[in-house]
Amino acid sequence: MSGGGTETPVGCEATPGGGDKKKDSLGTAGSPAHFIIKDLGEIHSRLLNHRPVVQGETRYFVKEFEEKRDAL
């Protein structure tokens, strides 16, 4: 996971022939399995995506550094 790229969700892969139809082995888009996969994706992104936390810590560090530098 390098971020920034788009990924095809599991179970909704495009057909190898390049057609407009999508293969959905889990049934319709409103099926319970589809909702579970969607929830798992959200849980995964919240638990393993540390970018917002790191960006916030970086902004805080830079702000504190600049304030201390200006005080000297």
From TrEMBL:
Residues 1-28 are annotated as: Disordered. Pfam families: Muted. GO terms for cellular component: BLOC-1 complex; transport vesicle. PANTHER family: BIOGENESIS OF LYSOSOME-RELATED ORGANELLES COMPLEX 1 SUBUNIT 5. Belongs to the BLOC1S5 family. This is Biogenesis of lysosome-related organelles complex 1 subunit 5.
